[in-house]
Structure formats: C-alpha cells, structure tokens
Amino acid sequence: MSNIKQSTISKSRSYTACLSEANKMLFDNIRAIFGRTWTYCTALAVVAAVYLSLYSHAMIYGNSTALTASLCVLSAIMLAAEIAYYARIMFLINGRPMKWNIIRTAKLAACYICFIMLISLLFTGITYAVILAKQPVTPQQLQPLLATFGAITLAISLLMLPYVYVAMKYVMEPETKLRRIIFKSYATGLRHWGLVFTALFLAALCVALCALLVSIPLFIVIAADSMSVYGVNVLGDPTGLPSYFTTIQVIVFALTFFIWAYINIFTVFVCYFLYGSIETREKEKRIAKKELTGQL
Question: What sign for the dihedral angle of Cα 5, 162, 202, 89?
Fold first, then answer.
C-alpha cells in the first residue's frame, strides 16, 4: 500500500510528463515526506557534514594517520546512512517494510560499488602497465591516457543509464531476483534509452541548479577557510577567523546537505515514473504483438 498520494504508475508517459508527475508528487506530499524522512535526512546530513569538514581540513592543513582513519570510518558510516536514506524513500513509494527496502537497497549499492572498483582497478592496472613499459613517464605523457579514461568513463556512464530501470524494478517488485533481471531488464531499459537519458538529464539540470543556489553559504565558508590558510601560510597574516569557525562550518555543511537530501528525492521520483512508463510501454507492446499474432 502506498504511503503517499500519487498518480497511477501504470501509464505511458513522455519525459516531460515524468518530470511533471515527479514534481507534483513531491510537493503534494511534502509534509508527509518530511515527517517520515527527516530523521534519515538529518543523520545523512550530519555524517556528510563531519566528513566534508574533516576532508577539507586534510586538504587545507595536511593529512595524518588519525585523520585518514577517521575518514575511512566516516565513509562506512555515510554509506550506511545513504542506504537507509534511499530505503526510506522507497518505503514511501512501495510501502514495503524498512528492513526489506534496506536489504534490497544494500544489494544494489554493493553491485554498484563492485562495478566501480572493477573499473577503477582496470584503469589503475593499465596506467601502471604503461608506466612500467615506458619508464620514465612524465605527467604530460600520461595526459592522453587519462583523457581516454575520461571518455571511456563517460561512455560507460551513458550505457549504465538503463540500470535505473533495473534498480527500480528490483525495489518495486517483491518477486524479482536481482541476478535474474540484471541483464534481461537492462536490455529492456536500453530499448528506452532516449526516454531515460532525456528525463534524467533534465532532472539533473533542475537538481543541480537548486543545489547550486542552496550551496552558496557552503561555498562562502569553504572560501573563507581557504583564504585564511593562504593568508597565514603565504602572507604571514593572522588567521582572522573566530575560534568557533569549525562549528559554524559543520552547521552550514549539515544544513546544506539536509536540503540537498530533499532536492534529490525529486530525481528518485522521476526514476519511479520512468519505471512505470517503461513497464506500461512494454506491456502494451506485448498485447499488440499477441493481437497481431492472433489475427495472423
């Protein structure tokens, strides 16, 4: 049973209709969504804020063993918070228990991480092979190889877009098994690549614009910290920042990430309506094929 008011999912929609329905579902249910997700969004925002604050400190002031260990621990905690956050959003849509959504979201996250690690290891192996074969190698000589890796990464990202449909199908249909649908459903999503790409591209533009406006205080805080360090280390000036600046920094980061979490829900809703549209189109295609076969 659905937890929020929404239009029927079983309808073939254009990319503009998917965006419109996602926007409508978000703002028509904004109070219900906030009431049922604020704890998860807060947890994710706080962990992300502490992580970014420590990471910025490492980039500006230098790294240390303790700081590296803290960042590794926070990365694991942030991954768990993200899984719980996405599971909660899916709970709003599919009405399944949180434990069920967390398990399925975690499996999708594990597949994604394994894929990213595989690609990273492949690129790293090729880079080291080139370095060993052509010693010595200057950074300038590696630039064409890195540019090639960038182009390949972009191509892979575009080819991975249909997995949005696979992921939504996996969390929306309880009877599905990931290993059984991961290739078959990808082929289905690939047939609708244009719809998926256009809808997600426009959704990403909307989300990026909103996130950019919300992030202005974050950029100001980071710039102030960077300029202070530059003044101290290069110009010999006093820091000029108050002793409680770190606290202000974490609070600004946390508020920014908290708002980001709700902006991102729009993208998830777009994926939800894309899934419904593709499912409906495939169903209509099967019915038309059966009717045509019956006539023949």
Answer: positive
- Tell me the C-alpha distance between 143 and 69, whole Å: 31
Give CA–CA dist 82/48, Å, rounded: 10
Q: Are 270 and 19 in contact (CB under 8 A)?
A: yes
Enumerate long-range contacts of 68-77, CB under 8 Å, 24 or more apart.
74/47, 74/50, 75/51, 77/47
CA distance 164 to 272: 9
**What amino acid occupies position 174?**
P
Q: What is the mean pLDDT of residues 143-169?
A: 89
User: What CA–CA distance (Å, rounded) separates 52 from 242?
Assistant: 20
Q: Flag whether pLDDT at 1 surpasses 60.
A: no
Listed residue (259, 69, 275) closest to 170, CA to CA: 275
8 Å CB contact between 107 and 83: no
Percent of the chain with pLDDT over 90: 54
Q: Which whole number is the average pLDDT over 70-75?
A: 89
CA–CA separation, 113 vs 136, rounded Å? 33
Phi then psi dihedrals of residue 90, to 5 deg: -65, -30
Q: Residue 198's closest CA among 9, 7, 14?
A: 14
Q: Where are the alpha helices (DSSP H) in the chain?
A: 15-28, 30-61, 65-94, 98-133, 139-159, 163-172, 178-181, 184-191, 193-214, 216-230, 245-295
CB under 8 Å to 136, separation ≥6 — which residues? none
The CA-to-CA distance between both ends of the chain, in Å, stands at 41
